[in-house]
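Entry for zinc ion complex. Fields follow.
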Amino acid sequence: MLANVVAYLAIVVLMVGCNGKQAPADDQSGIDDADSAMVTSANTEQGLVSQPGLGESAIDFVARVEAEGIALAKELDAAFWVRATHITPDTATIAAKAGERGLAFESRVVEQAKQYRDTITDPVTDRAIELMLRGSSAPAPNDSALQAELSQIMTDMEGQYGAGKYCNAQGECRELQELETILAKSRDYDELLDVWRGWRQVSPPYRAQYQRFVEIANSGARDVGYDNLAELWQGGYDMDSASFVEESRRLWRQVEPFYEQLHCYVRDKLSDTYGAEKVPATGPIPAHLLGNMWSQSWENIYDLVEPYAGVSSLDVTAALVDQGYDELQMTEAAEGFFTSLGLPELPDSFYRNSMIKKPRDRNVVCHASAWDIGNGDDPRIKQCVEVNEEHFETLHHELGHIYYYLMYKDQPTVFKGGAHDGFHEAIGDTVTLSMTPAYLKARGLIDAADESYEATINKQMKIALTKIAFLPFGKMIDEWRWQVFSGEIAPADYNASWWKLRQAYQGIAPPIARSEADFDAGAKYHIPGNTPYTRYFLSFIMQFQFHQALCASAGYEGPLHECSIYGNKVAGKKLGDMLSLGQSQPWPEAMQAMTGQRGMDGSAIIDYFAPLNSWLKDKNQGLQCGW
Ligand SMILES: [Zn+2]
């Protein structure tokens, strides 16, 4: 991504993409999927930012950066939106240039911001300066040649990933989305293996570029005052880096035993399907059998592990199709959830300017994302909506971002952002946890809410395959990158260390031998795209915590998994109050505004999944869990 430039300047395209588990994968390179916010433009070329000697006060500096950023945002919004919705070599050129200017602007801002780092002005200004210093996921070094090289490498890696194809021995070529479909649907061990291995031929060509990227980005991090990029990333949570690392690991340990139960049960079922010689009863699971290119969420193999065969799968897809829903109606229905909470209606411009249907006449980046354009006045989503349950949920997810933008619209731009980066991802998902059978029935999307024990276990299994299976993956990606950035992992060990962490956290292993000629980390978008990933892990933890707190606000007292806050204005007010803070306060303040707690906590997950957890423990008796 060209830039996570300046999440702090917050300006412009705060485009929050989504972790890709759900969305139709990118059909192209594209600038996608990251918190990015870019700024810049011609009028900064002669801007004062590069002349810190003028004695500008911190207050004046912050005010000027905001004003310039808003003005410059227009240009970058246009460049990136058009790039994502009309993919051509021309729009790539325009976007790469814009990204380069964004990096240059960012670098000048950071350079000047550094001189205010140790001065105390007032809490608002001090926080603004701090956010500027830590805001980018790849700060450009203060060197124009390196800036250009960084921008070029990032654009190029993304381009190679986006253009990636695998052509098999028969000469049939497939893009990622088609390969993913095979991974999801095929139950042929060898076909799965072929596709899994095939996609991993895309990334070795940019392994050396990634190594160079790490060098330059580390140098940019040092220019901002961090030892390396890992420390900068870890420093984005209103606590020191070491404390955050430990806190994130503590959260994982809270949920790890439950994951191990899920892993144990799934491994046993896969062993039934593929045979014990392919999937042994102990040890890691072969990575290509979990229905997903990265083994990051497992809902596509639900049919192989369904606890009670055929019991009430709530067929929302069939209901959407039967009732003739189209892309627009699905979007409006998702909006209806938010307005039921007392949150405002979406502006007309949202429907005018969003891309919710895949165009037939051009290439676009289909990967779902939400964009904060026009300084809060023109928020948009980009999603190639298909009429099915998964896309219906993704729409709620994207609108979670949009409502964040709308609610913090009146904050200074420097404070437009999630309380921390996990918050932004968690909002829409929190809402989807309220899409209970009772809610779907109330909306006329299913005829009867079968809430039998068996139906509950089946539903929980589906959710766990998505959200619990994801947790160790969400955790390990940045465990790997933290060590890559800090130098603990040497470039010569990129691949071996990747698989070491994959096995330790997820309990999976490559189905065929891998070597340092491979670059399997790079076969996941967020590595060449340089999107920090811990945010998704935190989001998956916090969304259950948020759900629990909002249900408590709503006065709900039953089992957590049956709660829906739909239509509850008290819960809606709590949510809205938290959203409207943006990142103006340290995140524990936002957390407290909504939940009454000041820390992140994984215990709501255990609470929510209590029925499935005890069911799994029972089923796993006699199996040797772990790996
Ligand atoms: Zn998202």
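NOTE: Residues 1-17, 19-53 have pLDDT under 50 and may be disordered.
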